[in-house]
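User: My advisor asked me to double-check a structure prediction for RsmB/NOP family class I SAM-dependent RNA methyltransferase before group meeting. I don't want to rely on an old file, so could you generate it fresh from this sequence?
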Amino acid sequence: MQENYKKIFEIGVSKEARDLALKYGYLPYMIERYINIFGSLHETIEFLESVEHGLRKSIRCNTLVASDCRVLEERLERRGIIVDRILQLPHGYWVIDGEEKIGHTSEYIYGYYYIQGPGSMTVSYVLDPPKNSVVADLASAPGGKTTHIAQLMNNTGAILSVDKSPARAKALKANIQRMRVENTVVLVEDILRLRDLNGAFEKVLLDAPCSGEGLLPFKAERKRSMTMLEIKRAHELQVRLAKKAVELVREGGILLYATCSIGVEENELVLRELLEDREDIEILPTRWRGQGEPGITEYMDVNLGSELKRCMRLYPHKHKTEGFFLCLVKRK
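Assistant: Sure, here is a fresh prediction for RsmB/NOP family class I SAM-dependent RNA methyltransferase from the sequence you gave:
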């Protein structure tokens, strides 16, 4: 890590940040970061208020089981569950009524749908895996994105779905079976220990392990769950994982780096270090149907590079999604 990047982790906390942290129940350093991310107290408060209000539950219709999603709508309505299309997500639905039932239906058991946030759904659409392609999904459990990728590929081609945790891989395998996925092999392994797969994949998804602070609308405990030191350690691992992920991409192929975090430390700074490590990659414009704020190019008086504005950020107060970061990287 370059010396000037270290100041990003040496954050001072203002009185305004302390006051907001006390009011909303956060660790103060987190609020200071949000003030720097959004550039104003006004938008920071908008974000914090949106977290307090939470998000509706949402589901993804699985066309590997329900070839016509209107059939799913009708079946759920008969059970007292009312859903409404998420306009920008072809298979996404808000749960308008009956949220408490959504994980306890026969349709859920038989794989008609997956309970998934809209930001998480957006990831697979942005990856845009072609049919009959060869794709890797790294750190993939519990399988929301693996099963979505398989759906978009209509069970053609091949997916390698990797997770190092045997317990999480068990849930991954269960969801692959439940969602009727047939084109996926699960590998229980540390990504950093993968061998003989360099250049093997047309598209690679790295939904990197992260602080998960983008999930604040669902998980209030994230307000106080990580110190700045832990975020620094997460960043260091993310850089190592991103470097490994690029190696798995064939020439001309695509890596999608994503996290359910809005922290610059876990996102743009990771991409900055990746760009400095390799000359054979470039950032591609990353948006989905007009959605997404540009990536952050300057933070804590550190210039991260103008190309990072091509990355994509999602926020609850602007896009009604959980917080997410997505960035397409092409290997030349």
